Amino acid sequence: MTTLDGQPVSEVARADTATQAPTGEPDAYRQAPAQVADRLGVDPGVGLSTGQVSERAAVYGANRLSEPARRPEWLKFLDQFRNWLIGILLIAAVVAGAIGDIRDAVVITFVLLVNAVLGYWQERRAEHSLEALRRMLVPTARVRRNGTEQVVEAQLLVPGDVVLLEAGDRIPADGRLIVAEKVEVAEAALTGESQPVTKSVTAVDHTSTAPVALAERTSMLFMNTALTRGRAEMIVTATGMRTELGAIAEALRTGTEPPSPLQVQLDSLGRRLALLSGVAVVAYALSALVRGESLSDVALQAVALAVAAIPEGLPAVLALTLALGVHRMARRGAIVKRLAAVESLGAATVVCSDKTGTLTLNEMTVRTLWTAGRLYDVTGEGYGTAGAVRVHGADDTSPTDDLRDAVLPFALCNDAHVTDGVFIGDPTEAALVVLAAKAGVDADWVRTELPRTGELPFDAATKYMATFHTEPDGRTRVHVKGAVDVLMGMCTDVLTEDGACALDEGHRDEILAVTGQFGSTGLRVLGAATALMDGTPSKFAPAALPGLTLVSVAGIADPPRPQAREAMALCRMAGVAVKMITGDHADTAAAIARELDIEGDVVTGTELDRMTEEQLAERMDDIGVFARVAPEHKVLIVRTLTNRGHIVAMTGDGVNDAAALKAAHIGVAMGITGTDVAKEAADVVLTDDDFSTIVRAVREGRAIYANIVKFVRFQLATNIGAILTLFSASLAGLPSPLTAAQLLWVNIIMDGPPAMALAVDPARDDVMRHPPRDPRERILDARRLFAIGRAGAVMAMGTVTLFAVARSYVDPDTALTMAFTTFVLFQLFNALSARADDGPLLDRQQFRNRALWLCLAGVLAVQVVVVHLPWAHTVFGTVPLTVTQWALCLGTASTVLLAEFVLRAVRPVLRKAGVRF
Ligand code: ATP
Q: Strand 422-424 relative to strand 220-221: parallel, antiparallel, unpaired?
């Protein structure tokens, strides 16, 4: 990141802090946590009270960085005139006025204004849609206030707030660490340091008074950096513009999004077309001059032709289509952060989806428990504690001490809180708190009785979590919960009916049979283990864990999402492969995959480790489920798929998923369960975490692409039509069939409402019945270019022929009006033909876009006005037409659509004869 004068932010930050500390609490990093808490008037165990929060909010304001000044609306409107084409038109208007051609001067000025209004409106709408999207991603923070944990909007934080953080969280303000368990922070955004930095609660540099560089303030967390590992609590020391980031925010340059591949493609296409039109216009002007037409007439006509021939409105309609498209997606739960992702979504060939929470509901309920060689059934639903733990097949419901011991690790090695059926924290952990309650253990109570002295936070890579507690006799008890296969590797003993005994092969087989049985019914399996240690370990690290005793195994139900099966079928129909990628056990994953109809083999992370990339590539098409994978496997899977030419959408939620989300063409983060880090790395954020939303987004992506094709075809066909019309008339020795004013009028129609109506066309019903488009395909391939040329040629032929014939029967003004009307009406049929692209020309779908039909009716009505109202006669040089003449114009104009009908009829015959187009 650089500042406006190109200096790395890190350097500015260092320079700033070397001279002055911009935070409200300059020396918090030197002080002990208790001192900081004292100074900020907060008890870290309770947090601020509601009264304190509102008082401080009034003093410190919102925890927000001030936004860069907005460009005033009137300047944005004037921006529309900052375009070389508009410049030429302005000159033309002045020239026309100067030579006394007031009519054309007025028309050109009018066109300029309409163009500017249209462009301004399109940009504003696009901007508003994107702004609304940004507002949907409101950052939140977990705080302790009034003695309870709650989630609040990050902008409502005040100094003194106690913020609770876990791996993957974005730090919402500057703060002094008061709890730090294995904390690592990515501070690259602030200090330029690319490696994660280890942080601790230890105060920095007690003795010296010299300011310490930001990167060395290891007891502080800074706004907008991210916790990549561990668990932390901090007291907010500075908010908003008083934070370290705030101090340099003003110097930050806000990056603009680079253009998407499609925008680049269309830009270069536009430029080539502009060049071509330029050559055509010059050639046309020269030939007209040679024919002896007056210079002023020719100049005006040439400018008008240039305007009609150059697709200058294309970028604006493209921006609008993308913006409205992503707005529609957002309403359906998929927030697109990078416009380019829309294109990739439409071309996606593989969706790699997490299981938990995306394909399943993430509504965890422990159904069954195994402990000391016995199986128990757990009754009750959801996160309410009503229910019981009964010996399998028996009616006994009273919890026993054995049962309480069996669930104790689940209650203590756990960060979730459940109150009245509502939980804060991880759903799996909440389900275990509920299990403990049903077995007679109140998690909150035991956590106060046996406070935690240390922990190893859960990590998707290690698949377990451990906590350390001091026993009344001074010894340390460690509780561990995690994947059973991992735990078994850490256990030396197992709890049996006769107490703890050495874990032998027989026990292993029994436990594997239990987990296999749980897994095969789709239950998530989690084990609990414990051990007593003498004294307190010097440091809480995996190496400090003693041999454990496996205590119990829980089977947790997490039902598949009801719509997931249907979405899966849609993917199959659309030729999009789905691969489930999960950290869960292979049996559980396979059972859920079966329920959802995900086809293919199940491969585990261990098997993946044994394969070479070539072997994986070979098997890739046959694999449907990757189970027990670590986050780094996701990167390997994405890489293998992309190397095989796939366009990959990959979901992720954890901090370790960021690399895979970035590597995929479309990184999809979970909005509810996803960490801030994953959301940041992603291109799309799902507000409902639902797999079917991804499939809907793919559908929308395809529809948006199809709409872009439609209006590009529509606009370019009109451009080509205008050039060819004037050229062929000139070649035929006829005067121009379209005056400058008329050409400009056509230009308004082309850039205006009909093009925009095509941009918001609803998706065709069969949009998911085709295989994905080839991502290498250019938007205008030979087939579409031919179609555009064809439409342009038909328009030119129709207009010029009618003009030539009419001139033999009626006066020149009527012939001119007929030619003009025909060319305008051609655009109505051209819109319908472009809309169908390669699909059926006249079916139910053609009548589904009400906006388009309204626009077309509007264009027709205005054309009637232009032809029949006297004041329009002076502007456009038109005269009233008879009904027959109108019918002739309409008939001729319809040929652009009729030609497509004929073509579709003869195409199969020609194909058989070996002619392809
Ligand atoms: P997904 O399908 O989205 O990858 P997952 O929850 O199945 O999600 P992870 O979160 O990586 O995958 O979990 C992997 C394994 O780690 C789980 O199968 C479970 O055994 C164990 N596990 C999950 N959550 C916890 C936790 N909070 N504490 C301890 N172990 C956990």
A: unpaired
